[in-house]
Structures are given as C-alpha cells and as structure tokens.
Amino acid sequence: MPLAEHRIGFVGAGNMAEAIVRGLLAAGAVQADHILVSDVRSDRLDLFAALGVPAFPENLRPASEADILVLSVKPQVMADVLRELSAHVGSDTIVVSIAAGISTGFIEARLGDGARVVRVMPNTPLLVGKGMSALVPGRHASPEDISLVSGIFASCGSTVIIKDETLMDAVTAVSGSGPAYLFYLAEAMLLAAETEGLPAETSDALVRETLAGAGALLAASRGAAPDELRRRVSSPGGTTEAAIKSMDEAGVSAAIMEAVRRAAARSRELAKG
C-alpha cells in the first residue's frame, strides 16, 4: 500500500513533527486528513489544526488510529509514553522513533512481541526541507516498512539506511549534532568579522551566505572530497592558506574529531538511561 493511503500519527507535536508534517503536505505525499497529532500544549494543537491536521490532547487517538506512528517525544519521557500506548499499538502498526539514544530494542521490549520499530535520527535542517535522516530497522521491521518510513523523511530532506544499530551513536554525533558545529563556526566567523571592523549587518550577511554557498557547493560536488575543495580555494602563499595553517597550528581538526567522539559517547550514555 503506498504511503498516501496510510494514516500517519504523531505523538508529540514539536518542531520536528511540524517539519515532517509540512514536508509531507508540501510534497503531496499524504493528505492532511490522513495525519493525526497529539500534544499536551494547546498552542501546538492549534497550529496543526490550522494546517487541516486533526489534533488531539490525548495520545491514544493517533496511537489507536494510525498505521504509522511517529514517537516525537523527548528520550526522558519515552518509557512513560510507551507504557501508556502499549495496549493500543499492535504488530500491524509501524512505530517510528526519532528520540536520541532510544534503541529499537527498548521500544520493542515495551510494546510487546512483533512490534515493527524503525529508529530514525533526523537533524534540524529538516525544518527547511534539507534534513539528513538515518534509519535503522528493528528486529521485526520489513523492507516495505523501511521504504514507507524513508518516504516520510525524504519529503523534507535526504535519507540513508543504517544496518548496524550500534552505529547510530556515531550518526547522532556526526549528523544529528552536526548542524550545531556549523553554527559554532558561524559564531566565531561573525565575531572575527566584527573584530576586523566590518559592520554587524554586513558580517551577518557575509557569514550566512558564505556558509550556505559552501554547503551547497559541497553537496553538489559529489566527485570531489572536502580536502580537494579546500585546496581549490587555497592558493600557495595566499590568505586562505594562512588561515588554514593557523587552524592546523591551533589543532582545530583534532578538536572537531574529539567533539564528535564525545557526542557519540554521550549518545551511548543516554541509551543506558
């Protein structure tokens, strides 16, 4: 059955759920009346209702009516949510989790035998249709289940399939947390631009558009490795070479590798509870 014929439920109506729903509607992948959401916040319910999406304060509505149920809640409350939903979610429902650090096994153990679980790690560029989402199937998820879930997230970005769930901690550290690394670089570049005397408004435009353009170039240059793209900008004895040399001397590359390592380690800690 194609995605358009399924009913998709969201438990938790935060920014990620909104981005996914807007992506589905914009792509025409699913009609608004085939989506259901629940949340305790009335302002979020009003927002989805304005999109034509049925919105409820009770989690049991999407849980009992959806064919595909997306759990878009914080990891800290996942156990409580699963306890509430366990009697209402059967093996005929595809359960999708976007909670960091929550394994498919954790969900399967609380929903009972045969639960069809797909774990997804999206990132915040999903909000502008440029997300990167990694999917990993649980023990009972079929290839068709993965295809359907991939279709949901492809409506607001790109997807990859991960076969080994232990690698999801690395995915979390690289792409889940990755946008923050770029924003951190942007902060430093803004401060440096203003320190060099550029007006704040000009600095902001230069930094935002430079990073957006470089990102677009990187994405479009599949045949060129990042170091090759960097070399193309770095003329011998020029300004870029001087900047890169300074970063190398400061150990920037090593610091980024250590940051990713620590993020992955933290993801493993969260998985343990």
Strand arrangement in the largest pleated sheet: 3-2-1-4-5-6-7-8
Number of strands: 8
Average pLDDT works out at 95
CATH class of the largest domain: Alpha Beta
What shape does the CA trace take?
Answer: elongated
Which regions are unreliable across 5 or more consecutive residues at pLDDT < 50? none
Largest sheet: 8 strands, mixed
Distance between the termini: 37 Å
| Rg from alpha-carbon coordinates | 21 Å
Task: List the secondary-structure elements in sequence, H or E.
Answer: EHEHEHEHEHEEHEHHHHHH
Using brief descriptors, characterize the structure shown.
8 strands, alpha/beta, single chain, eight-stranded mixed β-sheet, 12 helices, ProC C-terminal domain-like fold, Rossmann fold, 2 domains, 273 residues
Write a short abstract of this structure.
The chain is built from twelve helices and eight strands. The chain has helices at 15-27, 42-50, 60-65, 78-85, 104-111, 143-154, 168-176, 178-195, 200-220, 226-233, 239-249, 252-272, and strands at residues 8-11, 35-38, 55-56, 68-71, 94-97, 116-121, 131-137, 157-161.
Structure description:
With 273 residues, this protein is of the alpha/beta class. It has 2 domains: 2-165, NAD(P)-binding Rossmann-like Domain (Rossmann fold, 3-Layer(aba) Sandwich); 177-271, Orthogonal Bundle (ProC C-terminal domain-like fold), CATH 1.10.3730. It is 53% helix and 13% strand. The chain is built from 12 helices and 8 strands. The chain has helices at residues 15-27, 42-50, 60-65, 78-85, 104-111, 143-154, 168-176, 178-195, 200-220, 226-233, 239-249, 252-272; strands spanning 8-11, 35-38, 55-56, 68-71, 94-97, 116-121, 131-137, 157-161. The chain has an 8-stranded mixed beta sheet with strand order 3-2-1-4-5-6-7-8, sandwiched between helices. Strand 1 (8-11), helix 1 and strand 2 (35-38) form a beta-alpha-beta unit. It is elongated and about 65 Å long. The mean pLDDT is 95.
